[in-house]
């Protein structure tokens, strides 16, 4: 009876990876030693409830072929081990509108190396906002839409370079990226010390009293203004002008002409 070797528990898991490696080799796909990363933490809005920001892959892909198009692949972690690089962007299996229900990954943000110059030019913004388009979210004619992500994730991403429809180079997959989630109102802790609730109430009361005082002041000023200009003003009678009568020395009364 031949001796049977016990199966390694990870053998079944490694089989899809070996198949993908063979497929990549058949296509001449080159894996680049680069892992996509989130942008600098100093950038505002690095991760939101529907977007995240990546560093651009500067000085990563080779310049040959020069007409290659670089795509960003966004996938759920479960799709990474069996991801098929030969599926073209814009196909139903890679459509954003079907992600993640019937399409476990989609491809977006296609561009050429001209938009990823190396080295970085002074003043260049070298980040990519994933999930920033809203108009094409439900537009089936835009399967490569960079639409808002449908949930907190997590998600994993990689960059891939295509020469026509043939993949020629790719990066490693990123670490899982989890988006922010909105907290229920009851879970938001009160800020400040334990007296914050009473301070808020006191501030509200003072604001109301100030508004009442201001309204009373405005009404008083309006009353005084109407009393001053409402007809009680007196006007002085214009002084009579006296004109003195005088006779000229060279004009005298002439007697009536006689017939």
TrEMBL record:
Keywords: Membrane, Signal, Transmembrane, Transmembrane helix. InterPro entries: Uroplakin-3. Residues 1-28 form the signal peptide. One of its GO terms (cellular component) is membrane. The chain crosses the membrane at residues 199-224. The keyword Iron does not apply. This is UPK3L protein. It comes from Pampusana beccarii. The lineage of its organism: Eukaryota, Metazoa, Chordata, Craniata, Vertebrata.
């Amino acid at each position: 009876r031949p001796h049977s070797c016990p199966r390694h528990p990870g053998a079944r898991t490694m089989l899809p990876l070996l198949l993908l490696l063979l497929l990549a080799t058949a296509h001449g796909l080159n894996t680049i030693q680069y892992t996509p990363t989130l942008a600098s933490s100093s950038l505002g809005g690095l991760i939101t409830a529907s977007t995240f920001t990546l560093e651009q892959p500067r000085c990563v892909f080779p310049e040959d072929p020069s007409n290659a198009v670089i795509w960003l692949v966004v996938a759920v972690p479960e799709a990474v081990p069996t991801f098929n690089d030969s599926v073209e962007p814009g196909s139903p299996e890679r459509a954003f509108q079907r992600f993640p229900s019937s399409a476990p990954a989609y491809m977006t943000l296609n561009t050429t190396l001209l938009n990823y110059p190396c080295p970085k030019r002074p003043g260049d913004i070298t980040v990519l906002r994933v999930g920033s388009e809203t108009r094409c979210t439900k537009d089936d004619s835009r399967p490569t839409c960079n639409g808002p992500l449908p949930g907190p994730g997590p998600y994993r991403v990689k960059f891939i370079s295509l020469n026509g429809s043939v993949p020629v180079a790719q990066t490693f997959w990123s670490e899982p990226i989890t988006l922010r989630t909105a907290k229920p109102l009851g879970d938001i802790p009160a800020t400040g010390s334990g007296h914050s609730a009473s301070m808020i109430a006191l501030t509200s009361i003072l604001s109301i009293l100030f508004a009442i005082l201001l309204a009373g002041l405005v009404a008083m000023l309006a009353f005084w203004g109407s009393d001053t200009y409402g007809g009680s003003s007196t006007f002085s009678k214009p002084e009579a002008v006296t004109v003195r009568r005088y006779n000229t020395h060279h004009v005298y009364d002439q007697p009536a002409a006689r017939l």
